[in-house]
Design the sequence.
């Protein structure tokens, strides 16, 4: 079995969007015998030094990434492939934050092209540019956005991301994403869109989500995660989950093999 690498994990440094410390993610990944994990916190790399240190202690590889909030409100995960890529990511984030109000930032699509060198793009989860367009029924926009990402990162530098969390609407979205990947001759990659290291941290995330939406647990309703599936999972669980698309799971290891690990902090 080809190893599985989780390429899309958020920590508590995603500010109310993740509920596990970077160290907890690293230690849990080691327990699950994951060779590496990519930390993709929202609009920053603040947790990267702690994650890197804990990963070294746990004898796993730390990959650095980020969820970028784009100018249209979509969220695009990118993963560092080289030292130059890490520098470009930091420059991109710094530019966005210097011009924005505190705790807010957004990145123009043209800026992404400017700083693309050394970065790899994923198409994201339900907040990603493809699924946002599909949710609005705009298949043309989804197609155009994927074409733009391909031109930006190159055919080998962008992957169509699939996640399965046992939600009713997932099969339709997945069918559209696979069709788009085939049309643009791009590869698929499976991730679990991790929001916490272990499922027992899901109630903490619910509290964080309520704080983010300025509501309480009784009134939060659908803004809360519908189940507890977004924890770190091992290779066996992911291959079982994607039994019909094993190459999407295997591609995670191929991506990780082409990504470097810059020193942080």
Sequence:
């Amino acid at each position: 079995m080809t190893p599985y690498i989780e390429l899309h994990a958020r920590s508590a440094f995603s500010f109310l969007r993740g509920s596990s410390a970077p160290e907890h993610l690293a230690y849990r990944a080691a327990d699950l015998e994951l060779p590496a994990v990519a930390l993709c916190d929202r609009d920053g790399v603040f947790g990267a030094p702690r994650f890197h240190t804990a990963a070294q202690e746990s004898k796993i590889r730390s990959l650095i990434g980020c969820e970028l909030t784009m100018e249209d409100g979509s969220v695009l995960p990118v993963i560092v492939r080289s030292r130059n890529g890490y520098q470009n990511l930091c420059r991109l984030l710094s530019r966005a934050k210097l011009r924005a109000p505190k705790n807010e930032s957004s990145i123009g699509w043209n800026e992404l092209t400017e700083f693309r060198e050394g970065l790899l793009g994923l198409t994201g989860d339900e907040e990603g540019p493809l699924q946002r367009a599909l949710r609005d029924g705009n298949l043309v926009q989804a197609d155009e956005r994927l074409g733009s990402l391909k031109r930006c990162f190159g055919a080998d530098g962008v992957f169509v991301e699939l996640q399965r969390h046992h939600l009713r609407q997932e099969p339709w979205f997945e069918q559209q994403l696979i069709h788009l990947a085939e049309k643009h001759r791009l590869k698929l990659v499976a991730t679990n869109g991790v929001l916490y290291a272990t499922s027992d941290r899901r109630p903490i995330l619910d509290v964080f989500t309520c704080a983010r939406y300025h509501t309480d647990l009784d009134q939060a309703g659908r803004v809360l995660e519908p189940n507890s599936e977004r924890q770190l999972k091992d290779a066996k669980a992911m291959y079982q989950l994607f039994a019909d698309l094993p190459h999407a799971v295997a591609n995670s290891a191929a991506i990780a093999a082409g990504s470097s690990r810059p020193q942080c902090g």
Observations:
- The first helix runs from residue 22 to 31.
- The chain has one domain: 6-257.
